[in-house]
Structures are given as structure tokens and as C-alpha cells.
Specification:
Blueprint (H helix, E strand, L loop, with lengths): L1 H17 L6 E2 L27 E7 L7 E7 L7 E6 L7 E8 L2 E2 L2 E2 L2 E7 L7 E8 L2 E8 L10 E6 L6 H11 L6 E4 L15 H14 L4 E3 L19 H6 L15 E5 L2 E5 L11 H12 L7 E5 L16 H13 L4 E4 L5 E8 L13 E2 L5 E5 L20 E5 L3 E7 L4 E8 L9 E6 L11 H5 L1
Parallel strand pairs: 1-21, 11-12, 12-13, 15-16, 16-17, 17-20
Antiparallel strand pairs: 2-3, 3-8, 4-5, 4-9, 5-8, 6-7, 9-10, 11-22, 14-15, 18-19, 18-20, 18-21, 22-23, 23-24
Bound molecules: 2-acetamido-2-deoxy-beta-D-glucopyranose (5 copies) and fe (ii) ion (FE2).
């Protein structure tokens, strides 16, 4: 029986590979062609009150979801260095966590006072209220901790990339916010696009954080860094890459034995999430390479069935913008992704939406000429979701014909949701900004590569 089904799968694979037809769907949807311009700086205002805390955002603060890092900025003086928090309905037991406070300069800009407080040992699956500020201006928010890590724990992630701070960015954010399902955000890099301005005007890092606060203060955003986080400006003395990003966005990298906030992992509900840096060294013997090699040995699919990777520059994508920029990292890491049966890789960078088939391209050796991606049931699905809506506009020039590795592609702004149901099934959907939230532009029932490695078929593929 097993042999027969194996033969069938093999036959299917051979047929699929041999098929001369091109790939999946190129959506014919044409979005409105309005230009993406940044929201006026003065429209992204600070909250009222003397030295009021602003730019409040949270992320996971430990390896398993019982910690939260709360970050905020006070513009005029350091102010209170504590975050006060308590369980909903239990305000007789308020606790405090101490914040580290720093400032930084960038060219002719000086930041406000940036605070990061790590709250630890929270109860799982519990709603907490937290407060920052002092008597003159106190601001109150809340978050819900995830359930305890486990194989069948349902959990829903939003997925957003390349957001920026245009009218389109705002629409993406509001669209995601209006969906009650999302519990945490996987952010695949390129945050503020402050580097679009002369001297990378870092006030645009402040305004971006004010824009996203309405979601990021309530849900943890799991951060990956993109090229717009590099902020390298040697002619103005800024020779240390990632300076504004690293000061403003702290992540729990030490909890996964990483030596850099640019690559790390977290476990959340039924997912093991690995964050990589496309713009840090990843060649053999480098810190990122060594860390990832060890990290894969720590993944336990009995505990976290879903293995998800975030990295900014896509390995598979068929847009003419940024084509093959992710290639050198693919060459280094793709064999590990296939061996370890990564379920999904989320990337950004290309300002369009695209989903791949499960494909790999690991047979190639310099001398053997085998350099064509092939269907591979052990390989991840690659999703490019750099369509948050930033100032650079859409990447709407796809290669033609659509390559066989591409299952669905569309140049529209939007976001996605990944609903982990149990150890075998996850429902994934992509939502373009022009539709109401309930409209699904692309979707797939994901089957877990470890527990249920069957072939998936998307709505789009069924329609074809
Ligand atoms: C920094 O330099 C820019 C460009 O020369 C200028 O527009 C801006 O006002 C300066 N900012 C400060 C704080 O001096
Ligand atoms: C409250 O605001 C006033 C200025 O309006 C300031 O002098 C005072 O130091 C502030 N108090 C605190 C506790 O920050
Ligand atoms: C993997 O996780 C399961 C479930 O939590 C646990 O029983 C098992 O000991 C873990 N295996 C390793 C090697 O840690
Ligand atoms: C699309 O990309 C191709 C390949 O880079 C280029 O030759 C072509 O001019 C581009 N088309 C447009 C409309 O930009
Ligand atoms: C896992 O979730 C899928 C989708 O909701 C469902 O069809 C399936 O029965 C679930 N599996 C188990 C073992 O509950
Ligand atoms: Fe990018």
C-alpha cells in the first residue's frame, strides 16, 4: 500500500516536472493607480500631555511567550522608567518592570528617551493591562499572552511587510486592525522608510512608530530587519549599520542563544519562528550561519509542529524588481530548509504579493548543470508579502511567462493571516486593501510538513 502511494506520488512529481506548461495564476486585478505618498508629518502627532509616552509597541520578551518587551519614547525628559501591569480584574496586584533608557544621535537628529522594559513570568493565555508615563500623562494599553507552547494550540498571526507610512500603509494597517482574528504580527522588514528623506530624517522613525502604535501597542510584532533598517550614511558619520532600528526595536535574541538582534527565534503557541537577516553575513563560519545550524537542531516538531522562517529578501519570486537579490542566501541555507522541512518562508522586499509552489533547487553543483527548481514535498512554500504600501509604490512588472515555481502573484497592497488550527492544518489567506477584509485574494490550506506532508491545493490552483 505504502509502496503504491509512493509510486503515485513519484509519478505525479515526474509528470509535474516534465510538464512544459508555465506556472500558476497571475491575477488580472488592477488596483487604483494613485501614487503612494507619505502621510504629512504633522498628521502623525504625539499624544496630549506633558512628556507623554508615545510610540508604544510590544514584542515577545522571552523564548516561549511568557515575556513581553514594552517599548516607548518620552520626548522631553526621561520620565518614569517603569511599566506598571496587572491582570484584568486584579488591579489590587499591580506589578512593575524596570526599563532601560537610552537616546541616540543620527546625523543632525537626536532621539527622545527610548525605554524598553521586559516583563517576565506572565501567565499564559491571560489578558493584562499595562501603563506607562507618570502623573502628568499616563497611557494605558493591554495585551493577551499566548497559550502555552504545544502541538495543537490554535493561534493566528498577521503577516505584514514593507509597510512605510503612506496613505496606503495606513490602509493596510487599518485593514489588518479591523480583523478580529490576528493575535500577533510577523513583520518581514522595512519599517519606516525614513531613509527616503535627506539625512534619513529620523523624525520619520518617530512618526512611523506613532502610526503603528494603534496595533503594535496591543499585539506583539515579531520583527525582522530589511534593507531600509540599515541606515548606513558614512558621508555624514553614520558608519554603524542598523543604528536607529537597534535602538528602537528590541527583541529577545539572547533567549535563543543568538549574539545579534538581527537573527533569533521564538516559540509561540504551536509555532517555532526563526528570524534571519538578509543584510548580515551568512557565509560559512559567520555568526549567523553557525547560529542557524545549531538552531535547526533545537526545533522539536512534537512541541512546535509549525516551522516558520522570516527573512527580508525573497529566494523565490518572479518580479523584475529585486530579482535574485536573495540568491546568495538561498545557496547557503536552502539545503537546511529542505532537510528540516520548513513549512513556510515569509519574505518582503518586493512590493507585490506572490506565493510559490513547494519547490527546491538544491541539486546544483558547479559542474552538473542541474539548476532548475523542482517540486519538492519537503520544501517550504515561499510567500513574498512586501506589499504593505510604502512610498516606493508597487512592483508591477512580473516576468512573462509566469515561471512554474510561482503559484499565484498579484501587484496589490495587502496583508495576510496565518491561522494555525492544530498540528496538521493551517489556513492561510491574503487580503488586498481594495476589498473588504472578508474577501480572500489568495488562500491555501497548509498541511504540516512533519505531521501531514500531503500535497496542498489552493483555491487558485483549483480554479486554474
Ligand atoms: C538637519 O538637516 C536638514 C537638512 O539640512 C534640515 O532640514 C533640518 O532642519 C536639520 N535638523 C536639525 C534638527 O538641525
Ligand atoms: C509635570 O509637568 C510639569 C510641567 O507642566 C513639570 O514641571 C513636572 O516636572 C512634571 N511632573 C512630572 C512628575 O514629570
Ligand atoms: C520534544 O517535545 C516533546 C513534547 O513537549 C517532549 O516530550 C520531548 O521530550 C521533546 N524532545 C526533546 C528531544 O526535547
Ligand atoms: C519590466 O522589466 C523588464 C526586465 O527587467 C524590462 O526590460 C522592462 O522594460 C520592464 N517594463 C517596464 C514597463 O518597466
Ligand atoms: C485539524 O484541523 C483541521 C481543520 O480545522 C480539521 O479538519 C482536522 O480534523 C483537525 N485535526 C484534528 C486531529 O482535530
Ligand atoms: Fe526591502
Amino acid at each position: 500500500m505504502a509502496v503504491v502511494s509512493f509510486m503515485l506520488v513519484l509519478a505525479f512529481l515526474i509528470l509535474s516536472i516534465a510538464s512544459p506548461s508555465n506556472g500558476g495564476i497571475t491575477s488580472s486585478y488592477v488596483r487604483k493607480t494613485a501614487a503612494s505618498v507619505d502621510l504629512p508629518f504633522d498628521s502623525l502627532t504625539s499624544p496630549p500631555g506633558y512628556n507623554a509616552p508615545e510610540q508604544v509597541h510590544i514584542t515577545q520578551g522571552d523564548h516561549v511567550g511568557r515575556g513581553v518587551i514594552v517599548s516607548w519614547v518620552t520626548p522631553l525628559e526621561p520620565g518614569s522608567k517603569f511599566v506598571t501591569y496587572w491582570k484584568v480584574g486584579d488591579d489590587e496586584h499591580k506589578k512593575q518592570a524596570h526599563a532601560s533608557t537610552n537616546t541616540y544621535k543620527f546625523a543632525n537628529y537626536t532621539s527622545g528617551f527610548i525605554h524598553h522594559a521586559t516583563i517576565k513570568n506572565l501567565e499564559y493565555n491571560t489578558k493584562y493591562i499595562y501603563e506607562v508615563g507618570n502623573n502628568n500623562a499616563t497611557r494605558r494599553f493591554f495585551f493577551t499572552t499566548p497559550p502555552e507552547v504545544g502541538p495543537d494550540v490554535p493561534y493566528t498571526f498577521g503577516v505584514i511587510g514593507d509597510l512605510g507610512q503612506t496613505y496606503d500603509s495606513k490602509q493596510t494597517l487599518e485593514h489588518y486592525n479591523s480583523n478580529p482574528k490576528g493575535q500577533a504580527v510577523l513583520f518581514v522588514g522595512d519599517l519606516s522608510y525614513a531613509d527616503h528623506y535627506p539625512l534619513h530624517d529620523n523624525r520619520r522613525w518617530d512618526s512611523w512608530a506613532r502610526l503603528v502604535e494603534k496595533n503594535a501597542a496591543y499585539q506583539p510584532w515579531i520583527w525582522a530587519a530589511g534593507n531600509h533598517e540599515i541606515d548606513f550614511l558614512p558621508e555624514n558619520g553614520e558608519t554603524v549599520p542598523f543604528k536607529p532600528f537597534k535602538h528602537r526595536y528590541h527583541v529577545p535574541y539572547k533567549a535563543s542563544q543568538s549574539t545579534s538582534p538581527l537573527w533569533y527565534s521564538v516559540k509561540r503557541a504551536s509555532a517555532h519562528i526563526i528570524v534571519l537577516s538578509s543584510y548580515s553575513a551568512y557565509g560559512k563560519y559567520t555568526p549567523q550561519y553557525n547560529w542557524l545550524e545549531t538552531e535547526f537542531t533545537k526545533v522539536n516538531r512534537s512541541e512546535t509542529p509549525w516551522l516558520i522562517v522570516l527573512l527580508h529578501s525573497p529566494w523565490y519570486n518572479s518580479d523584475n524588481y529585486h530579482f535574485m537579490e536573495g540568491e546568495s542566501m538561498r545557496v547557503m541555507f536552502e539545503p537546511w530548509f529542505v532537510q528540516n522541512k520548513v513549512d513556510i518562508v515569509f519574505s518582503g522586499h518586493v512590493h507585490a504579493y506572490e506565493r510559490s509552489e513547494r519547490i527546491s533547487n538544491i541539486a546544483y553543483k558547479v559542474s552538473n548543470g542541474q539548476c532548475t527548481p523542482v517540486l519538492d514535498p519537503s520544501a517550504p512554500v515561499y510567500i513574498t508579502i512586501g506589499d504593505g504600501g510604502n512610498i516606493e509604490g508597487l512592483a508591477n512588472n512580473f516576468t512573462d511567462p509566469q515561471p512554474s515555481y510561482s503559484a499565484f502573484r498579484e501587484a496589490s497592497f495587502g496583508h495576510a493571516l496565518l491561522e494555525l488550527k492544530n498540528r496538521t492544518h493551517a489556513y492561510y489567506s491574503w487580503h488586498r486593501n481594495q476589498d473588504s477584509e472578508r474577501v480572500v485574494g489568495d488562500s491555501l490550506w497548509f498541511y504540516n510538513r512533519h505531521w501531514y506532508p500531503q500535497k496542498e491545493s489552493s483555491d487558485a490552483a483549483t480554479m486554474a
